[in-house]
């Protein structure tokens, strides 16, 4: 008799249907993106709701997200104003101070309305633990959802280890010290939580930012995005100093001026503090006619760009931050079935495997050569796209992460006993069943 292999979606649905977090109350605080635009946070929030928890989120306003309060898909969303995207030390101090003020005010508001037992802080920045300290006086616990390694991010942006870098290490240490549970986006982050943060291994859970395949789907291509050219190369992500878009623009210049390829259009989806400077850089390089910047765009535009693209790119520089970080765009490219060009970094290679080709570290010319080689080889593109889609379906979609997120919260609420390597074992004692 053949053994029936359960699909990850079925396993996740059955787990959530059992309402393992029924009666629990969770407050999620995220500072750098609005919800539901922040896809990881939104997937976590809606999953916790489906598991029976009451979930509230505090986040900033953003383009298209300007209501101070909304109730969407069972999630209570409280939004606040923030200064414009920070650039420089004074800008960051202003932004973080304003965020802390509103996070504290709104946390008291949530506590008086929906209530909460646990605060989940999502970095950056690593200052949300200060809100958690206040509510420890009221018996609330803290879960740290580790999105970015901020000391490495600072060094990638500014190229130095100075007083502010040391302050970030200090804030990171205090964040881990405050947290009862840490949720890491990959094994590299888990290692940091244990070795640099001093967390016990059984209290660190890897929950990857896998795409929800019910949301991330291929759609009909839009030929107009090619601007009359034969090929489209797509990029999705933040327009920041550390994302390597300048290297990509150098690659475009090399492709157009030296390889004499005028049949390729590039479409870059995303907003951020460097968007306008990057537009100017494209003009200065003389390639602005070959590069479309959409700015921050809704999912409909994002998926249309990816579905029209022949190749997708991730030009993140090779540095400590990018080497250890999992980039959501890689998984979304794979979910749409598109081949990838990126530089060779540890977590990028783990995610993509043979769905990507890997250029020499920070070499824009080799990056350009890899793009052109893929565009000229349709069979390889098709094969790599299929590998990526299959890898997401079998290993990296959000359905695979649902049991891990629930296990982390069961541990945080004391519903399970610790196991090995961040895993958990169900406790059968009455005290645990009662949530004591």
From TrEMBL:
Origin species: Kaistia dalseonensis
Domain Glycosyltransferase subfamily 4-like N-terminal: 39-215
Protein name: Glycosyltransferase involved in cell wall biosynthesis
Pfam families associated with the record: Glyco_trans_1_4 (PF13692), Glyco_transf_4 (PF13439)
Entries under CDD domains matching the protein: GT4_WbuB-like
SUPFAM superfamilies, A to Z: UDP-Glycosyltransferase/glycogen phosphorylase
Superkingdom in the source lineage: Bacteria
């Amino acid at each position: 008799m053949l053994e029936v292999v359960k699909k990850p979606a079925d396993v996740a649905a059955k787990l959530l249907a059992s309402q393992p977090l029924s009666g629990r109350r969770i407050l999620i605080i995220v500072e750098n993106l609005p919800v539901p635009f922040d896809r990881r946070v939104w997937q976590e929030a809606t999953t916790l709701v489906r598991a029976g928890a009451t979930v509230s989120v505090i986040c900033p306003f953003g383009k298209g997200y300007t209501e101070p309060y909304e109730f969407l898909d069972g999630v209570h969303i409280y939004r606040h104003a923030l200064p414009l995207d920070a650039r420089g030390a004074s800008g960051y101090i202003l932004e973080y101070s304003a965020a802390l003020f509103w996070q504290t005010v709104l946390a008291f508001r949530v506590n008086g309305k929906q209530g909460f037992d646990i605060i989940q802080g999502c970095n950056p920045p690593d200052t949300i633990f200060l809100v958690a300290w206040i509510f420890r006086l009221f018996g609330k616990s803290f879960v740290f959802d580790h999105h970015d390694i901020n000391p490495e991010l600072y060094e990638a942006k500014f190229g130095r280890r100075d007083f502010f870098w040391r302050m970030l290490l200090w804030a990171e240490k205090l964040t881990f010290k405050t947290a009862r549970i840490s949720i890491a986006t990959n094994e590299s982050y888990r290692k940091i939580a244990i070795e640099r943060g001093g967390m016990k291994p059984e209290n660190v859970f890897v929950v990857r930012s896998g795409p929800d395949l019910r949301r991330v789907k291929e759609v009909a291509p839009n030929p107009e995005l090619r601007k009359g050219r034969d090929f489209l190369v797509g990029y999705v992500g933040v327009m920041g100093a550390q994302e390597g878009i300048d290297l990509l623009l150098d690659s475009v210049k090399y492709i157009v001026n030296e390889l004499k390829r005028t049949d390729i259009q590039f479409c870059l989806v995303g907003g951020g503090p460097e968007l306008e400077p990057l537009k100017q850089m494209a003009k200065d390089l003389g390639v602005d006619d070959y590069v479309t910047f959409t700015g921050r765009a809704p999912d409909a535009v994002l998926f249309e760009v990816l579905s029209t693209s022949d190749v997708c790119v991730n030009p993140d520089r090779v540095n400590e931050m990018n080497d250890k970080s999992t980039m959501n765009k890689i998984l979304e490219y794979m979910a749409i079935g598109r081949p990838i060009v990126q530089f060779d970094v540890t977590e990028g290679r783990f995610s993509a495997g043979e769905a990507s080709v890997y250029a020499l570290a920070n070499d824009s010319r080799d990056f350009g050569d890899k793009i052109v080689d893929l565009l000229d080889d349709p069979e390889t593109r098709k094969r790599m796209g299929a590998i990526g889609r299959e890898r997401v379906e079998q290993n990296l979609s959000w359905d695979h992460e649902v049991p891990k997120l629930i296990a982390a919260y069961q541990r945080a609420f004391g519903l399970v006993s610790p196991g090995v390597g961040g895993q958990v074992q169900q406790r059968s004692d009455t005290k645990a069943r009662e949530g004591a």
